[in-house]
Amino acid sequence: MKVFKKLKNPYSIAYITIGTFFLVWMVFLDTHSLLVHQELNNEIENLNERKKFLESEIKKDNKLIKDLNNIDSLEKFAREKYGYKKINETILIVE
């Protein structure tokens, strides 16, 4: 209490109380609070990582599509992935 008595302005207690309330409100309670901003920044970071991953997947798929336009690579792809074979051909799978 001695601290408050030493203050020259009689409204100092009100200023300190309102200022403290304002800081608590802005940090924790407001819809634009620091906590909400931190959550949104984390979400943006996660979405950017997912975007980079999906862009790399798109590049891989585009390369595969280009490769599959060639009949030889299409046949190779079908044999490797799906086990296709020619008529009267025997396939041995070695593991």
Description:
This protein is an all-alpha fold. It is 74% helix and 0% strand. The protein has four helices and no strands. It has helices spanning 2-6, 12-29, 34-68, 71-82. The chain is rod-shaped. The termini are far apart.
How would you summarize what this structure contains?
By secondary structure, the chain is mainly α. The chain is 74% helix and 0% strand. The longest helix is centred in the middle third of the chain and has 35 residues, at 34-68.
List the helices and strands and how they pair.
Layout: H1 2-6, H2 12-29, H3 34-68, H4 71-82
Distinctive features:
single chain, 95 residues, mainly alpha, 4 helices
How many strand units? 0
* Radius of gyration over all CA atoms, rounded: 33 Å
Give the helix level as a range of percent: over 70%
Uncertain runs are none
The span between the termini is: 83 Å
Question: What is the N-to-C succession of helices and strands?
Answer: HHHH
Q: How would the global form be characterised?
A: rod-shaped
Structural class: mainly alpha
**Number of contiguous helices:** 4
| Main pleated sheet | none
Q: Kindly state the mean pLDDT as a whole number?
A: 85
Oligomer: single chain
% residues in beta strands: under 5%
